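U., I forgot to send this yesterday:
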Amino acid sequence: MLNKNHYIQNRLLKNFAIKAENGKYKICVLDLIKFDANYRNTDNCFCQKNLYDMASGDDVKELEKKFNDLIEKPMSKLLQRICSAKETVSFTRTELNIVKKYFLLQHYRTPRNRMSYTNPKKNAFELSQYNLQEGESKEDFWKREMLTILEHDMFELVQSDMIGVRKHAMEANSSFMMIIRTNNEFCINDIGYVTERMPVQIPKDKEADYIKTAKEIGKELYGQDNFDELARREIANQSSYFDNYVFHPISSNCALIMVSPEWKYVPLYPNLLNELQLFSPILLKYLTFPKNDYVNWDKMKEAKQDDIPQYFTQEDKFIYTIQTVNKDETIYLNHLIMNEAFCYIGCKTPSELIPSIRKYNELRAAGQQNMHHDFNGYVELLSKL
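Result:
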């Protein structure tokens, strides 16, 4: 069983599947390489043989086992709680850290992300440059990063000596979560998430400040002097961006949104929308924050700002209101997922995905930019299932 490594957890895939008469779960999979669409057993899709096998150590299956024991088992219970909730759902600080670590690992564990290590784009700024050991392959380093994340808590990860781990853990830890539902259906791709990323144009007269700030941040947060190199590449390639949120579908009708921390300040400072060039059709309509129930709230009210964290406990609770997006917004979110698929897209009900495919094809035919895939013909394939 361990030879078949799921890069999208099988338990999560079942939330996008129907239960067959034999008790197995089957999900409709669109194969973007072979131009095919068919139902497949969740045991046999979104997985790869020996994907996580370790090249060194006493147990080549160590990484796969730790995925199962340390993150997938506890997360399975939380997935059930979220998907069965009606109006609100709450997490302790311990549980919330499990959720954040689970999705942090999802950014690592897929074949597409492995390829970003083993076959990086030309002139890519590789964070592995800081921690790659002598004689260590980039694929082995990729696995060592995941093992590091599995074996440490979020507090340790945001202080990790591994620069890539620290950077991504800080981003995951600083984000805040929203939960949405649809009366239609979400699909899922083979990376398990998508980022709503907006391009940012750096004005000519601001380029020097942008480069200086990048260098200062790299030094302050990561102890590295060359983050200005990344800023220079972004300016040269016009590739600067801002991530509004990361969208994680967790069932055919439920999803988590991990929102960038800058959006916390929008209700207080509406001008930030223009100053930071913030725009998001979903966040502008549904932006909401969890209600916090702190064990030591009475002490925190009297404490100085810098002293407040010492009163945090693992039993603090975070209560989320579940919001429902409409059909057009569901199609929009499906388009994000579809557009960033590597090879596969999964859905529960083929007929429910057809409106998203038709709209995607219309936009692509009209010249919409950055449409990465051609879904012509898939409506016909899905109509036969």
